[in-house]
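#lab-general

N.A. 3:47 PM
ok so I finally got the sequence cleaned up, no stray characters, all 468 residues accounted for. can someone with queue access submit it? mine expired

B.Y. 3:52 PM
send it over

N.A. 3:53 PM
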Amino acid sequence: MNIVLSLSGISESLIKFSDALCNYPEFLLLIGGGLFFLIYSGFVPLRYFKKAVLSLRTKDDSPGHISSFQALMGAIAATVGMGSIAGVAIALMLGGPGAIFWMWVSAIVGMATKFFEGTLSIMYRGKDDAGEIQGGPMYMITEGLGAKWKPLAVFFSAVGLIGTLCIMQANQLTEAIITVFTTPAGVQESIWLKFLIGCVICILVAVVILGGIKRIAAIASKIVPLMVGLYFVLVAYIIISEIHVIPQVFGDIFRSAFSFKAGVGGALGSFFMVATIGARRAALVNEAGVGTASMMHGASKNKEPVREGLVAMLGPFMDSGIVCTLTAVAILTAVKSGGYVLPEAGTSVKGLEIALNSFGAAMPYPVLNGSLGSYLLMLVVFFFAFSTMFSYSYYGVKCTSYLFGTKYGKYYNYFFLAMLIVCAMIPLKLAVAIIDLAFMLMACATMFTMLKLSPKVKAAAKEYFKKK
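B.Y. 4:20 PM
back already:
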């Protein structure tokens, strides 16, 4: 009994610490830092978006493991996950429609951050103890800032072992399976049911990740366009069927983003609360400045750092810009049409449950024990969650290899698979707190490094665009 109470106390303390560190400090770090990159780069995401798209067609046989396109798909596979659905639903519940506006802001500044991140991932690659070329924040730090900064690289890699465990994905996929399949079938929710679902998830993920980066990249390059396309069709149907409420939906997003009530103090408090909620959820989605994507882009067969930066900046446009907007519009459309009511902040309703119920209300056609909308969203959730798990396992291997050597890197995957079962059973609040805290600490190391090296990126970009 004392052990249970002690664990509960530790859990509550961790949640409170995460909430304190990952609100205003995270907003200032990621949004403030991203805004600096946007202005300092000369608004590269807005000026060179077309060139970024065209860069995907360029083929390069330089040293590396995968193509730039595969690197982008692998990075998007990691980011277009549960945060794009459950995270958006949580943001809507906590911050209202206005939180989505700040996700859009985060997408734009995130593109600038990813431009610097992708460029540096090629500019400052290193070699592991097996002589293989590698990229990522740990190599940006040691190759770009110098060997004296190696403790910072070690810090990033150590925190990265926690941040890449797919805590949210395993947790929310388990909840989705229970909500859509087992509960309607009359199966009682229990810790043993979650354990069993976690084991099944573990086996399915093992089939892919034990094949290494090439298998992960090959599957990601096929599954990402398919899952985004399927999601777009699903949301398009919901929008078309309730087209008359769409102007009201977007009106609510803009009005709520700049909600001024209860005097100046209340207005500023409301404004910053909505903004930080949107930014915090967006950080979980696009991971701009966290450093994960640079590990994928650092494996690209590309000798032009700026071109890889252009490719990398398409990631936030896809996840925070397109996929998160699709989720928000679908949920808010169901609310505006009267088919669904968003739960109050502070209730025990889970983010993914909100999304599943709202999609079910928008497409209420009965199928088995549920509705068509819930089952179709569940199919999308399945793709999103597993694609993230595939890429995250690679990130964890990279962190492990840096800390302990490449011969031990492969063992991380077994730890990763075992933790999927554990993560399937822990409470959602604790899962969110752990991943938010890990991402914030990773971002501190990555953003510091990128800010220090930003003049190198600006000089390279000036030369690249002048030449091209």
